[in-house]
């Protein structure tokens, strides 16, 4: 920053060229695409669907509205656009609306440039400060977005006709930057009208003042499709002014959902313990969300957010950590018995359509069992488990649950050697007692859900026996 121009004259001498924010975003996007770098790092599952549309919109210089249910990375993508701005941008010193030193539009900046000329002081604004965001609510006013007369400035002696009495709203203050409106349909229709000029004529008009502020703003918005037509609506002229409308979606594959959950979940490590989440346990958590999105018992209009997967993964690890600490174990590996804890993190994130008392828990439990069975069938073939079933002939009973330590499961392999080979295939080289315990529980539960073993359970404890 020590080498940056400090006056308008120095800025001209440096060869700096003024360009619109959309040209700026377009140029930087082209450089990233040419270099093979992602435009939106951290956004997963949209590589072949949403991101190409968004890249097209930015290259075309369009304002964009994202349509999608909750938890579909709409806000993340909006905020990621900031990374396509130049790192630093010069503005007229003291400007409230980031005036371009070459083309000032506010009264303050125009007067300062007219008075000081090439000695006009210049400040530099970081791209992180060129982003404005507003959650649309019914009580949002034109003053919030566009501006209003500042009574303090009037009290200081200025006339109402003086442009300097204006207090600029969020949109003018994001001039030469990116402005986002979340949940646009919740914005009152009369307030939406106030955005028409911003999107088309690129200016704002405040109160009865005979002033027009030609703004340079990239406008991004998000909306839930249900809100789009029911709870609220976007007025037709405003929809027409958005250059691109992009529909988002939930992860199409379990692997993508697992990757997102691992990326977004809070750090899983805990002091003094080693946390490992086996692939099959993470897949069960993700499959639960995928099945919920197909369930007729779940209200699909409200969606099943990826946040459900993230919260369930965190809860799964938390319960496994608590169980391991109780048993004095340093290795934390989630088991099937830990899945019962997911009821608390699932209940608040899905809307279950039932009128029967207590039916909610049954539906969640059924989804969990279905998720375990689906993943079990994906990982293991029944013919490989034939020796395990043969070992259960007779009066063999296996105890499982939270009160069973990892060492107990290791000893079980000595009593039932047939479990050793399929368990080894699941642990993927991690032969710690905790990993073995998790694999054994998964095998036993999968065989039960496949109707090959009987199970009696109560209070977090279970017994498996042959049929």
Overall structural class, as computed from helix and strand content, comes to alpha/beta
Task: State the end-to-end CA separation.
Answer: 76 Å
Rg of Cα set: 30 Å
Number of helices: 21
The count of β-strands is 16
Tell the overall outline.
elongated
Q: Into which percent range does the helicity of residues fall?
A: 40-55%
The low-confidence parts are none
Q: What average pLDDT do the residues reach?
A: 88
**Percentage of residues in strands:** 5-15%
Describe this structure in words.
The chain is α/β, with parallel strands linked by helices and 467 residues long. The chain folds into 2 domains: 8-141 and 170-188 and 216-247, Rossmann fold; 254-466, no CATH class. Helix content is 42%, strand content 14%. The protein is built from 21 helices and 16 strands. The strands form 6 sheets. It has a 5-stranded parallel sheet. A hairpin with an 8-residue loop joins strand 8 and strand 9.
